[in-house]
Amino acid sequence: MLGHQDVLSHIQSRKKNYALDRELYCDPGTYQADLEQIWYREWLFAVPAAELPKPGNYATLQVGAYPVVVIRGKDQRIRAFHNVCRHRGQRLCSHAHGLTANLVCPYHQWTYDLEGKLLFARDMGEDFDPSKFGLKKVHCLDMGGLIYICLAEVPPAIGELAKNAMQYLAPSGLNDAKVAHRSTIVENGNWKLVMENNRECYHCGGSHPSLCRTFSDNPKIAAMDGPHSASPEILTHWDRCEAAGLPSRFVFDKAFQWRLARIPLLNNAESYTMDTKHAVTKKMGSMPFYDAGSLLMYHYPNTWNHFLGDHAITFRVLPISPTETEVTTTWLVHKDAVEGVDYDLNNLTEVWLATNDEDRQVVEENQKGILSPAYEPGPYSPIQEEGVIQFIDWYCDLMAGRLAPKPALAAE
């Protein structure tokens, strides 16, 4: 098991534009360092707000050692708390999703309101002060209908992403959407392999026959250097969409931790469906047309998303162990869309259900190969795997900065 300085040494010795060493994809020490330096410190996508439509609706997630509950309060505000009773530490909510009037510990029935205040604790004595035992809060932000959380005491700045995300997501009307379907799978691979696989379409032609009906695997089509620098097809699409009120141009942060851009689908396709036509008759929010393409949004370390004219798809990645990762996919449609009338669930979900399973197989075989003593990091394609290079550079730069020994304070 690697110590932090061993992890740092592997990161510093990486050859530029090459994959990571074996130990960085499977070692328990690396996994713990990833949790401590990234997952416990960065903003993480938790759930779409539409997953919590009513006061008392909650969702739970496990971030490393931390169980978290996200819940909508009676004031309609969404909050996050450590999913741990302040009495003896019992998990308050054991289900992935639910609806409750109050948060009641199943062990001794300590009861908290939806805002985290302790309401009831039986037989605790005259000196007991319930105001000191409310639930511990987790930083929580509603970013245009996407709920983000951060476990750090002081979270990193997120204002630039929030401003851009709320502007770009506004036409999709995520707060007027509902969950049509949700799928959670476990991929037997390191979380970085899951993210790497998403950041390129080098593998798409050979692995994703359904997706490639609508999503181009040509890297030149989606090559973007800025809001006014892209292929002619992309620039034309941006002009058309922005003339209709859809923010579309490529925006990103300097470290490439996040980016947003709207791209056209292949051959004027309308949605991710087998027949390439829209899957839902009621358009999302104020979307002006079905063939608006897909607004692509990623944010490291744990999400990528697709926002289309007729529906939206969110993806959440959570690490389980050095070689296990949970991937949750949620399909959102307009809140008034009726299954069986406005959309067929199989038609809506079949492309990405198939694609997710294909990606699972790719990641698992990738991990099995990396576990071999014969594995040696190979070079990334600068043409096909630019997104992977960006992700691995972000990871290595962040980890190197946080694991580097801090200079000792000068003696007075």
Summarize the structure.
The chain has 412 residues and is α+β, with helices and mostly antiparallel strands.
Number of strands: 19
Q: Which structural class should the secondary elements be placed in? A: alpha+beta
Number of helices: 9
Could you tell me how far the N terminus lies from the C terminus, measured between alpha carbons in angstroms?
Answer: 38 Å
Describe the protein's architecture and organization.
The protein has helices at 4-12, 23-26, 28-39, 159-169, 191-198, 204-207, 232-243, 345-370, 386-403; strands spanning 44-48, 57-63, 66-72, 78-82, 97-99, 103-104, 111-112, 118-120, 137-143, 146-150, 177-187, 224-226, 229-230, 251-252, 258-263, 294-299, 303-307, 312-321, 324-334. With 412 residues, it is α+β, with helices and mostly antiparallel strands. It has 2 domains: 44-150, Rieske [2Fe-2S] iron-sulphur domain (Rieske Iron-sulfur Protein, 3-layer Sandwich), CATH 2.102.10.10; 159-370, Naphthalene 1,2-dioxygenase Alpha Subunit, Chain A, domain 1, CATH 3.90.380. The strands form 4 sheets. A 7-stranded antiparallel beta sheet has the order 1-10-9-4-3-2-5. A 7-stranded antiparallel beta sheet has the order 11-19-18-17-16-15-14, with helices on both faces. A 3-stranded antiparallel beta sheet has the order 6-7-8, with no helix packed on it. Helix 1 packs across helix 9 (386-403) and helix 5 (191-198) packs across helix 8. The longest helix is centred in the C-terminal third of the chain and has 26 residues, at 345-370. The two termini are 38 Å apart.
